[in-house]
Amino acid sequence: MVSAAERAELWVGAAVLAVAAGFLIWSTSGGRTSGLGGGYELRAAFPNVSGIEVGTDVRVAGVRVGRVAGIELDPQTYLAEARLRLPESIRLPSDSAALIQSDGLLGGAYIELQPGGAPDDLPPGAEIEDVQGAVSLISLMMKFVDAQTADDEP
């Protein structure tokens, strides 16, 4: 006969396995939310995509509107081409810009889209021409140190 304590352990174990299975399913789906499954893709070729990976947020005015669907190196230009998945309700003007931004000193990176003012929109699959790649904090500090030492020289 099974005791009450053994039965409780069995239920707790089953609950732990169910939660673990839920996390496994969520993690393999990339943590996508239901609102970002459809939509269309735009492309942007960056000189540097440090901190950006598949699933990274795509934001407009700080609001998450999409995700990075893929990143590949273009063997002809040696630029990193990012595919951005946006919902159908977000249509960007053809002169919009894509910038890689940081969430602070230790935070992650995301792609910020800055809508332009052109009357026509970017069609699905189009490339955003105006891009700015990731800025390395270390290289900025090195430039600052170099500028300071140059100022100190007679």
From TrEMBL:
InterPro entries attached to this UniProt entry: ABC_MlaD (IPR030970), Mce/MlaD (IPR003399), MlaD_Phospholipid_Transporter (IPR052336)
GO terms (BP aspect): phospholipid transport
Signal peptide residue numbers: none
Mce/MlaD domain boundaries: 39-116
Name recorded for this polypeptide: Outer membrane lipid asymmetry maintenance protein MlaD
Gene source species: Paracoccus kondratievae
